[in-house]
Amino acid sequence: MNRNSLLSLLDAYQTSDPEEMKMQSEMKTFVTEHEDCFERTLKTGHVTASGWVISEDRKSVLLMHHRKLNRWFQPGGHCDGDPDVLAVARKEIEEETGLLNFRVDSDGIFDVDIHLIPANPKDEAHYHYDVRFLFIADANEPLIINSESRDLQWVPLSQIEQYNNSESIVRMARKTIS
Question: Is CATH 3.40.50.720 the classification given to domain 3-177?
Answer without folding.
Answer: no
